[in-house]
Amino acid sequence: MKKRFLLIIIFGLLFSGNAYAETWTCENYRFGKAIYEVKNSEIILTFPNGDGRSFKITKDQRKYKISVFGEMSNKQTNFDYDVYMDYGDKNVINRTLDALSGFSKSYTDKNCVILY
User: Fold this and answer.
1) Contact by Cβ (8 Å): 20, 63
2) Domain of 109, in residue numbers
3) Among 7, 26, 33, 49, which one has the highest count of C-beta atoms within 10 angstroms of its own C-beta?
4) Residue 69 near residue 85, CB atoms below 8 Å
């Protein structure tokens, strides 16, 4: 009986770490497709050409199926990036801000398919 209980605890701990892991596949205006892997503390953006970025999650409302927000800074080029993933509209808004000039731009990846 104790062994069975111990196995249940071990398997529960093994599988609980990926409870909020998911993958978003979206239409991207530039590359045709963008893939977002949302893990426990980061969002990994990958394009078909192998390019991509990693964002640190700063606001996580996945539990309620509202949104996920992540941020990333590139000190070598003085750019700050953020990404907002919207469950309601199933799209992802990417923004870029030049820390020196203040110039910013954004684009939206649309028609996302979410796999859990």
Assistant:
1) yes
2) 20-115
3) 26
4) yes
